[in-house]
Amino acid sequence: MDSSSISLSVWDESSQLDLVDTSSSQRQEPTSSAIVPQETVGASRYREFIDRVLWNGGSSFDAWLNAASFQVSQVLLNLPFTFAQMGMASGITFQLLYGMMGSWVSYIMTSVYLTYLATQGSQQKKNHVVQWYEVMEFFLGPWGKGATLLLYFCGLSSAAMIQMVACASAAYYINDNLDKRTWTLVLGPFMFLGVLLPSPRNYRMWSFAGIIMTTYVAWYLTIAAAVHGRDPGVKHTGPHSLENYFLGASNIIYTFGGHGLTVELAGSMWKPRDFKRVYFYAVLYTLTLTLPSASTVYWAFGDRMLHNANAFAVLPRTKFRDAAVVLIIIHQFFEFGLVALPFFIMCEKLFGIHHSNYYLLKVAARIPVFLLIWFCAIMLPFFGPIDSFNGSFFTTLAVYFLPCLVHMIVFRSEKARKSSFEQPPFWIRSWAGMYCINLGVILWVVVVGVGIGGWATISNLTRQVRSFGLFARCYQCPPKS
Question: Which residues contact 329 (CB under 8 A, 6 or more apart)?
Answer without folding.
Answer: 167, 170, 171, 187
